[in-house]
TrEMBL record:
Belongs to the class-III pyridoxal-phosphate-dependent aminotransferase family. It holds the Pfam family Aminotran_3. This is Aminotransferase class III-fold pyridoxal phosphate-dependent enzyme. Keywords: Aminotransferase, Pyridoxal phosphate, Transferase. It comes from Pelagicoccus mobilis. Gene3D superfamilies: Aspartate Aminotransferase, domain 1, Type I PLP-dependent aspartate aminotransferase-like (Major domain).
Amino acid sequence: MTNSNASTVAQELLADSQLQDALKSAVERVASHASQITEPLPPKADRQVEYQEALAEFSEIRAGKLYFPFIGSGIGNGPLVELDDGSVKLDFINGIGAHPFGHSHPELLDTALRAALGDTVMQGNLQQNAEGYRFSQKLLKHANQNGDVFQHCFLSSTGVMAGENMLKIAFQAKQPANRVLAFEKCFAGRTLAFSQITDKAAFRQGLPQTLEVDYVPFYDQNDPEGSTERAVSVLQSHINRYPGKHAAFIYELVQGEGGFYPGSSDFFKALMQVCRENGIMNLCDEVQTFARTPRLYAFQHFGLDQEIDGLWLGKASQTCATLFKSEHKPKPGLLSQTFTSSSTSLAVGERIVDLLTQENYFGADGKILELSNHFEAGLKAISQKNPGWVSGPYGLGAMTAFTPFDGKPEQAQTLVKRLFDKGLMSFIAGGAPTRVRFLWPVGATEKKHIDLALSILEESLSEQAADSAK
């Protein structure tokens, strides 16, 4: 009989001393080359023609121009990233929050290389390796810090698919309910179903209606009690008009695309209590907030552990996931994915969670709030020195935004492109007003990087103000 304590062949492979040396050498060589990247740099002249040709062809292939003229070279150094034209950018948007430890992080690279030695690239419904099992365990462990909140975790390759899975669970659990509730100015995603929930007409132009959605006004930090009363009143009105028809309320705890508006614990609890009384599931979209608030999960930051019924997460986690309760366990056949994610994404996602939770990132004295406060102080200083240039700041934790000038969309767009040309990557959010937002890499950012970003920002604002005055 085989010895049950014997190592597997895979374990023997990873313990191989020659392989260990090779992996260590690879990580060290990448770090050595990455160390040359120390500051934002303009493009190299001799790479411009080829780079512009590549951008044009890529835009044609994908049937749409890239938002930024960005094709990465494949290497960076923390918050700095090199493009294929030789330029270097201070990346404070990170693929809209998908790279929490920036670029070429040694520990994540080591984890990815080890996972890449596995027998398959992708894991899925029929064949899962240990990475998927461990990552699911870890997500549940940290979600249940304040009690037995969730019992199940289903992995997905994209955030919107994780959301779709949660929505399917809700409709099945609450059948024959066929409506959902969401906040005004929310962003849910771009699938057929979630484009109906996203409160932006342009995202569903020409698409057939697939869902009935009723909207509730979001929290107003300038009128906490009044906005809460109005939201509860509108919610109750929808419920009265369509009794028994709502399966779920989808909550963005911090509105991302809408403009980096955070809610409050009392606001969410008031709405969630009404939903609970009416048999409506409370579901949280944590795709952008995961690992960016003063707690790993935003629902924990807002103290909603006992209020919510399910959530989905993504971006910083690399592999996305749906967390839900046993009472809503779906019937066989409802959830299944050929690809849940790649082995490297699963392993790196687990390592990211470990690094964030084992080091001092969260809490009142954590790195996220320390850097957030530093960034906000810098934005306020620019505003005080130059009245009318900056309003804000807005957001929560590692989600930082401001309104440039009077918040017209063209002003924000121009500033974002100007910042990019000067070496700082940001993005827009909201519509009226339109804001500039940053999703800086929590695991790679230091105060000196924020100071550099603020310096580039102030210079760019000064130039834009001068251009407007002409």
